[in-house]
Structure formats: structure tokens, C-alpha cells
Amino acid sequence: MLTVAFVMLAEVLIFVPSIARFREDYLLLRLEKAQIASLALLTTDEMMTPELEEELLANAQVFNVVLRRDEVRQLVLSSPIPAPIHATYDLRLVGPFGLIRDALLGLADPQNRVIRVIGDPVQQGGSLIEVTMESGPLRKAMLEYGLRVLVLSALISIVTAGMLFLAVRRLLVLPIRRVVRHMTAYAEAPEDARRVIAPTASVRELREAEEALQMMQTQLTTALKQKERLAQLGGAVAKISHDLRNILTVAQLFADRIGDSVDPVVARAAPKLVGSIRRAVSLCESTLTFGRAEEPPPQITRFPLRRLVEEIAEGEQLGEGDISCLIDVAPGMVIRADAEQFHRVLANLIRNARQAIDATGQPGTIEISAGEGEAEWWVRVGDTGPGLPPKAREHLFTAFQGGARKGGSGLGLAISAELIRGHGGRLDLLKSDGEGTEFMIRLPKSAGLAEEA
Description:
By secondary structure, the protein is α+β, with helices and mostly antiparallel strands. The chain contains 11 helices and 12 strands.
């Protein structure tokens, strides 16, 4: 329908000058026939009978003919004029816009009027020829011509619209339906890689859409498979953590008894062993909680930060081998946080730094520094390791995707970031390049609404 409308609009723009041209040809034909009739009279020496003159005028469809030759204006053929002359049209002086204007005015006037038409004779038969004629037959011929143009335009527009419809259906509609069928089939079984669309469209835009859909379906299928494997892994980890928690609980009971030993070395090591087992039990419980997408709210207390950092460094055996540890934390610095959760966060960061340096086989340094401002505490953990690979930086705090070492799950950083967010703070990667990696923990000093209440 749009094609028909546009073609008809184009035909209207063509029709206006064409109807003006048709009117001009019609008037020139009347002048030519009138000139032939007048020449027939001028070439004979006999008197023309009224019947012959009337026949010549009827054949030319005019009332009279005036011919100017040799500067002499002569009324060659004449007959009674039924009405006064309404308008005069000089075809020698009018331009294209004038012809269009006269044609439209003639179509709009339904009355049969007498008009005068002036033009140049053909074959240099004089300097001027002038006829008077009726406008009714001219208007009728113009209407018939316009009707033929309209019918032809309608046929052309219908054929064009049909061809365009078939072309659009072939090039656009059918490929779009194919894409819709692929999307519907893929939605029924997104895990089936065989249902991923294969781009075949010849239209560039549709081809790009199919390629984008193919990429999205491929990524979604891969993600679903990974989620399924992760769900199975999560179930296995939950079972292992549950059983391991029970085993560690028994070990904790025996470790408590070791604390009563009279051996000073054992008595000194027992609290650390008990603390390590207690944190292992807490880690198992946290893993089970993480599998349920839940994390217990932090139990905010005040505790000295340096003592916590030294305990973690001693547990990771920093300073005993090729890895040195620099602790730049004021002895009297106290922060407000959940001691157990903050211990897990720092332990994860320090352990990751130690493993990164160990992987190089070269000596290295781990630096832990801390400070405070008016609004927050900050803790920085840096190392001189090789830096994180680009893929690890891209999904650094995403569980099971941000692992920096082979075999790593990336769960530690994800849990650490989640625990810090639970304190209202944030864990950021400051830098990671060939000179090392630095993480920054920021904890706000302002209390949460629940704690204030």
C-alpha cells in the first residue's frame, strides 16, 4: 500500500507537466488543421461554397481562422461564434509554468467557453495564425488523457508494489521468520549447542543481527554449562565442607586438651593450633553459607590491627624463606570490624601474594600498611610478584572466574570483596603490572543504621 501511494504521488508529479504538454499539443494540432484548411481555400481561385467552408471548419474544430501573411491579416475562414470570447492564449509567449497554470485552470472550469488561440504557422506558412474554438472538447480530451494516465499509473504501481512485496518477503520477511524460529527453538533447549543459529542472510543488517544472536547464544550456552558444572561443584563442596567441619570439630576438642600440656613448646603452640582449627571450622561454615547465597552479618568489635596482621604473617610463614614481610601498621591502631571476617580477607590477600611470588621462584617482598583518615580506615597489601594476567583482572571479584593461578577457583577474592561490602567498605585493585600487585581495603568509620539503633 505504501508503494502504491508513493508511485501514485510520483505519477501526480509527472501528470501535471504531462497534462500541460497534452493541452499544448492539442491546441497546436487545432492550429495545424486550421492552417491546412485555410491553405486549401487560398490555393483555389474559385469561390468556396458555404457548405465546404463549414466542413473545413468542422474538420479543424474551430469557428474561424485568421492568417497573417506578408504583414496582411486576413480572415480566411469564418462562421458564427456562439458566445463572446472568454480568454486568449498566445502559445508563442507562454512558458512551462504558464502552460501548467492554463491546463489546471482549464480542468477546473466545467463550462464550455469560446477561447482564442494564437500561434506560429507550420512550414513558414505565415507570420501568425489565430483561431477561435470551444474549450469543452479540449477539457474532455484532457480528462480522457488524465484517466488513461491514472489507470496506467495504477497498473504500474500495483505491479511495482507486487514486485517489491515479493522482494521484501524474500530478502527480509523470510530471514526474520527464520531468526524467530531459531530463537524459539533455542529457548526450548538453550543447553543444546546444535540449536545455535548459523548466519546465512544475504542482507548486511540481517547478517549482523544473526551473527550477534549467534554470539549471544554461544555465550549463553557456555555459561549455562558452566553454571551447571558449578552447581554440581557447589553441591560437592558443600558435602565436603559439612564432613570436614565435623572432622575439624573433633580435632578442636583434642587441641583444647593439648593446651593443658606441661611442655612449654606445646603449651605455646596450642593456642595457635586451636585458633587455626577454629578458623578452618568457620571457613567450612562460611563455605556452606556461601553455597546458600547467604553470609552472616558482621559482628562489629574493636581490635588492634597490627596483632592480627602479625598473626596472619606468622601463620603464612612469611620472613622464614625467600619471601620477606614488611608490616607498616602502628602498634596502637584499632579498627572497628568483624575480627574473624577481616582475618579471612587479609589472609586471602596475603596468601595470594605469597603464592604469586612462589610461582616466580625468585625472592620477593610482601608489604602490609595501614592508616586512617577522618572518614575511613585503609589497609594496603602489596607484593613484588609478576602481576595478575589480563583475564584474571577482567573477572577479579567474580567467583570461579577470577582465579589468577592454574587450578585456582577465584573464590577467595569474591568472598573477600563480599565481606568488605558487608562492612560498608570496598576492596579495590590499585595496580597490577610487572612490578607487582597492590590491593586496598577501605572501611568507613561511620556506624551503620542497625548498629546506631
